[in-house]
Automatic annotation (TrEMBL):
It comes from Cecembia calidifontis. This is Putative NIF3 family GTP cyclohydrolase 1 type 2. Gene3D superfamilies: NIF3 (NGG1p interacting factor 3)-like (3.40.1390.30). A divalent metal cation binds at residues 107, 270, 274. SUPFAM superfamilies: NIF3 (NGG1p interacting factor 3)-like (SSF102705).
Length: 306
């Protein structure tokens, strides 16, 4: 499962984005990466056709069981534009409609649970409002979670590594374990991550002065047993985590450090730790479907820091 950048400097469209800034401001879309206004593409493709293109190179696709389902709209609808995002929030839905797009490719759940079950939400006023808003704008929402993680390399991980400038350290033989060319003080790695992700702070269990070279990547929400097993196998200097249960991985790291173990834990938060992967997805989808405009709209970090 399940990362809040507003712009990306690696997109080939960068020059066009800068030139388009005045136009975006005129329609109230400053902060949105704009490949082109939706509806201006040359191809007429249904949502079904788009999904088939996106998953056709994923090993084992189509999956018999997956959360990657169309959660609203019709497969037979012609797409006017595509938006990628982490969470399909009310704000993302409104911005998608404003640029004339009608397909949101979201990494995470629409309705607050992994399977997007809604029977327990029928009386919830926020659920009712969100459902009505999506129907009003006739937005189709397709979840792109299992397939994006199954891609080789994992689409979320590749987007994160590009954001951090660490993609050259990726090892397909051990995709979750990153080895930096030289040991660095943990303080420097923390500063680098904060700068690249444009965040004021993050949570750390560890010593800022300790040396760090091996990093275990646990973006999103990884089961604590899997992380603890990785600690036993790799004994990494750092676990770079999205979110984790505080009474499990956090306490295992703390007790290990009290014993003299070196492994530290850095927690980014779920949204932040996967958003660059969906920012990268916009570029990846645009290359596969060049005739339909694709934009990334950040759902944003839900937390404020005081």
């Amino acid at each position: 499962m399940g990362q809040n950048p507003k712009n990306t400097e690696n997109f080939p469209r960068r020059k066009f984005l800068i030139q388009s800034a005045g136009l975006m401001a005129a329609v109230g879309l400053t902060g949105l990466p704009l490949s082109a206004f939706a509806g201006k593409g040359s191809n007429k493709m249904t949502i079904r056709e788009i999904i088939e293109i996106l998953i056709r190179d994923i090993s084992g696709a189509p999956f018999e069981r997956t959360v990657d389902q169309l959660r609203s709209g019709s497969m037979d609808k012609v797409a006017t534009g595509i938006v990628t995002t982490m969470f399909p929030t009310l704000e993302v839905v409104e911005k998608t409609a404003k640029i004339g797009a009608n397909l949101i490719v979201a990494h995470e759940t629409l309705y607050y649970n992994h399977q997007d079950e809604t029977d327990w939400l029928e009386e919830d006023e926020v659920f009712q409002y969100k459902k009505a808003l999506i129907e009003k704008h006739q937005i189709a929402i397709w979840r792109f979670h299992d397939y994006w993680h199954r891609r080789k390399p994992d689409g979320i991980a590749e987007g994160n590594l590009k954001k951090l400038g660490w993609e050259k350290f990726y090892n397909p033989e051990s995709p979750r374990l990153l080895i930096l060319p030289q040991p660095q003080p943990l303080r420097e790695i923390l500063s680098h991550i904060k700068e690249r992700f444009e965040i004021p702070q993050l949570r750390l269990v560890g010593d800022l002065d300790q040396s760090c070279q091996s990093i275990y990547l646990a973006f999103g929400a990884i089961d604590s047993r899997m992380i603890i097993a990785a600690m036993q196998e790799y004994q990494p200097d750092l676990i770079l985590s999205g979110e984790t249960r505080e009474w499990e991985t956090v306490e295992r790291v703390r007790d290990g450090r009290l014993m003299g173990k070196n492994t530290a834990l850095m927690i980014l938060g779920h949204e932040l730790s996967e958003a660059p992967g969906m920012e990268f997805a916009a570029e990846w989808i645009q290359e596969k479907i060049p005739g339909i405009p694709v934009n990334y709209i950040a759902s944003g970090n839900p937390f404020q820091f005081f």
